[in-house]
Write a structure and sequence with these properties.
Elements (H helix, E strand, L loop, with lengths): L3 H9 L5 H12 L8 E4 L1 H8 L12 E5 L27 H8 L3 E6 L35 H9 L4 E5 L6 H7 L2 E4 L20 E5 L2 H12 L14 E5 L9 H16 L3 E5 L7 H4 L4 H18 L5 H8 L6 H22 L4 E5 L18 H20 L3 E6 L9 E6 L4 H17 L1
Helix pairs in contact: 2-3, 4-7, 7-14, 10-11
């Protein structure tokens, strides 16, 4: 399946045209592979827009999708819920949507998500759950919370899936669907027009089919140019953190990760194994509930009082945990985080990027975590496993990219390349080289 970069070059060479590419994307979007992917489609509007598109623009009239928590002018912003389905229409596009449109992208629809973005599993009891694109035989979870956005990219219904990442909501579904997900440093992309989960941790970012497309999407969303040199892998000093990230890892994930490291070493990468004892501090730092619970409760408390019965019970349960946090506990959390970030940044300063499994498991069957109280224990166990690794980078205020690293024919496994804040260009540079090496194996 071609990525955006290759398709755009084909457009400029006259090998295809934007209308043909749009019809192809819409055809996939309407197929069974995209069942439950969209909460609202914009196909007729997309056809009108693509007819006026400019091939020389950065996105050349190609399709992108937007997670259901982004404002689109003239539409309500339900965020995967039913309690906001009749909310007032947005008066303008979210900044991120507007930037993708201005770059020549054509929006084909709003994508399904975990209600209010509060889970890494991707299950939605209101709109159904889109099946992972990697396994036609067994419906598997897509990962969340940007579930529909991931499947839209993985199936070929879109070249860019706009989403958000608060604890892994871009990287988890990217890893489980075998695509690329880049979480930038949060402050680089405006969040205006995106319904919040945690104002401290939320990051607006995207999923794509390749690292070079991730660079393009980030440059558009952040309105900046990435400086990613063409140095070989051997020019970078890389680390693997051995504690926490590998706890509870599935054999298939461990095998894929180890094989990926060997491939990178064979390509010249210098990789050192290190311990990061600061990770053991996170449980105590977040003991009073963490940012997501407190900040989501502040936003949802009145809506819960009015319409709590309409919430996904699992989501409501997590939001309500924020009701007990005291003001001094929240302020202590802010200070503890800043001190922890400083210690971790110092420990990682000798390295250009860190390598870890994005998540320690492959995608389980939807049936094992489908809505129902009898499956709640398994749902929350899986959710905790999925969120554990990527959420560390959100707590660090860092940047990270998930890159597929499984062998052909195996369920997708994500290799996460990451670092502290504002190391985005270095992470992307290493990821470009790592992707080239892994594609040759």
């Amino acid at each position: 399946m071609n990525d955006l970069h290759a398709t755009r070059l084909n457009l400029l060479a006259g090998g295809t045209d934007a209308c043909t590419e749009m019809e192809h994307a819409i055809g996939i979007a309407q197929s069974p592979a995209c069942s439950h992917v969209f909460t609202r489609t914009l196909f007729d509007e997309a056809r009108r827009q693509v007819a006026r598109s400019v091939p020389q623009s950065r996105l050349a009239g190609l399709a992108f999708t937007a997670k259901d928590l982004f404002d689109i002018e003239g539409q309500p912003t339900p965020a995967g819920s039913v309690v906001l389905s009749h909310a007032p229409a947005a008066k303008a596009d979210a900044v991120s949507v507007a930037r993708l449109r201005a770059a020549g992208g054509v929006l084909t629809g709003r994508t399904n998500m975990t209600e209010f973005a509060f889970s890494g599993v991707g299950v939605n009891p209101h709109h159904g759950t889109p099946a992972n694109a990697s396994d036609a035989a067994t419906p598997r979870i897509p990962g969340g919370s940007s579930s529909g956005a991931a499947v839209s990219v993985a199936t070929g219904a879109a070249f860019i899936g706009l989403g958000s990442d608060t604890g892994g909501s871009i990287r988890i579904p990217a890893a489980l669907n075998g695509i690329v997900g880049f979480k930038s440093t949060a402050r680089l992309v405006p969040t205006e027009g995106a319904l919040p989960l945690s104002t401290t941790l939320d990051t607006v970012c995207a999923m794509t089919r390749s690292v070079r497309d991730a660079v393009t999407a980030h440059e558009i969303l952040a309105a900046r140019r990435v400086t990613a040199g063409a140095a070989a892998l051997g020019a970078y000093r890389l680390a693997v953190v051995k504690n926490v990230f590998f706890d509870g890892i599935e054999p298939a994930v461990a095998r894929a990760f180890d094989n990926a490291l060997q491939t990178l070493r064979d390509a010249g990468a210098r990789i050192e194994e290190i311990q990061l004892p600061e990770l053991a501090e996170l449980q105590a730092i977040n003991a009073t509930g963490g940012f997501s619970a407190a900040e989501s409760y502040a936003w949802h408390r009145l809506l819960l009082e009015r319409s709590g019965a309409g919430y996904d019970p699992r989501v409501a349960q997590r939001i309500l945990k924020g009701a007990t946090m005291k003001a001094h506990e929240y302020i202590d959390l802010l200070h503890a985080r800043q001190a922890w970030i400083a210690r971790v940044e110092a420990a990682l300063s000798p390295f250009d990027a860190v390598l870890s499994p994005t998540v320690p498991i492959t995608a389980p069957a939807i049936a094992s975590v489908a809505p129902g109280a009898e499956r709640d224990d398994e749902f929350f166990r899986i959710n905790a496993l999925l969120l554990r690794n990527p959420s560390i980078i959100n707590m660090l205020d860092g940047c990270a990219l998930s890159l597929p690293c499984q062998a052909v024919g195996e369920l997708p496994v994500g290799l996460m390349l990451w670092h502290a804040s504002l190391h985005d260009d270095a992470v992307l540079a290493v990821a470009l080289q790592a992707e080239r090496a892994l594609q040759k194996q």
